[in-house]
Amino acid sequence: MPAQPPYRRVLLKASGEALMGEQGFGIDVSVVDRIASDIAEARSLGVEVGVVIGGGNIFRGVAVASKGGDRVTGDHMGMLATVINSLALRTSLIKIGVDAVVLSAIAMPELCESFSQRQATQYMDAGKVVIFAGGTGNPFFTTDSAAALRAAEIGADALFKGTQVDGVYTADPKKDPTATRYEHLSHLEVLQKGLAIMDTAAIALARENNIPIIVYSIHEKGGFGDILKGEGRCTIVADA
Ligand SMILES: Nc1ncnc2c1ncn2[C@@H]1O[C@H](COP(=O)(O)OP(=O)(O)O)[C@@H](O)[C@H]1O
Ligand SMILES: O=c1ccn([C@@H]2O[C@H](COP(=O)(O)OP(=O)(O)O)[C@@H](O)[C@H]2O)c(=O)[nH]1
């Protein structure tokens, strides 16, 4: 019998950018299927899973703003991108027999249900994987902030940031090859050192609500389950 993971309920923030695989844009279904199988493994370990997916594989609001376009409209488009990704993940989960539902911060009843904290917790209590689409529903925010917000709302024991790198480094490892990885650090240290692994609003919200953040590589098959079992490579951001 494997040891029971120390987490009862977690929020997984899955990088949108990761979903495009080698394509450079859009959705590589084999990547979404693999992330779905990682979530299925977490469920089989008895862990309740909520998911926020980014939209960077399709659209980011800042890309519009940097070309002189309207930021708010750009952000609306980015939030719609997260709905597309969420529907793809739901499809992959259902395909392998994992009960999953999409709750969107932006009402689009023909496609999915609208978010409410009450409905989300009811579904999670019932063992469904709840995918939170549409970010926070507000422009000028990111899906990292949405992940911290939903983690607080559902009472998650931890926020897992499944991203492009396998932890938090002393500097961006994609730009500085001499950067070294932390095993552990506090939310405050991430903020004070200006480590840009997540936006400051997300870190601050997690800190205020005492939610540990676990940063790991979403590209690693089985990585999510490994960390839940206390085995994987990651950085744990938590106050002592
Ligand atoms: N100190 C740091 N440690 C680790 N990654 C960092 C750091 N500073 C910047 N990064 C960059 O942050 C990226 C992850 O953030 P983000 O762009 O929000 O990814 P995503 O939302 O796709 O998961 C990494 O790919 C890495 O290049
Ligand atoms: O609460 C939110 C969450 C997301 N977005 C928009 O959606 C895009 C995609 O999200 P994000 O960049 O966080 O995705 P990721 O980096 O995880 O792929 C962002 O760039 C924003 O334009 C937003 O406006 N409000």
The number of domains is: 1
Strand content: 15-25%
**Overall pLDDT confidence:** 96
Number of helices: 8
User: Which structural category do the helix and sheet elements fall into?
Assistant: alpha/beta
**CATH fold field value:** Carbamate kinase
What top-tier CATH class fits best?
A: Alpha Beta
Mind explaining what this structure looks like?
The protein is of the alpha/beta class. The chain has a single domain, classed as Carbamate kinase, CATH 3.40.1160. 36% of the residues lie in helices and 17% in strands. The protein is built from 8 helices and 9 strands. It has helices at 29-44, 61-65, 71-95, 117-125, 143-153, 187-192, 200-208, 223-228, and strands at residues 9-14, 48-53, 100-104, 113-114, 129-133, 158-163, 184-185, 213-217, 235-237. Strands 4-3-5-2-1-6-8-9-7 form a 9-stranded mixed β-sheet, sandwiched between helices. The two termini are 30 Å apart. The mean pLDDT is 96. The structure holds adenosine-5'-diphosphate and uridine-5'-diphosphate. Uridine-5'-diphosphate binds at residues 15-17, 54-56, 60-62, 74-75, 78-79, 81-82, 135-136, 138-139, 141-146. Belongs to the UMP kinase family.
Mind sketching the topology for me?
Layout: E1 9-14, H1 29-44, E2 48-53, H2 61-65, H3 71-95, E3 100-104, E4 113-114, H4 117-125, E5 129-133, H5 143-153, E6 158-163, E7 184-185, H6 187-192, H7 200-208, E8 213-217, H8 223-228, E9 235-237
Bound molecules: adenosine-5'-diphosphate (ADP) and uridine-5'-diphosphate (UDP).
Function: Catalyzes the reversible phosphorylation of UMP to UDP.
EC number: 2.7.4.22
Subcellular location: Cytoplasm
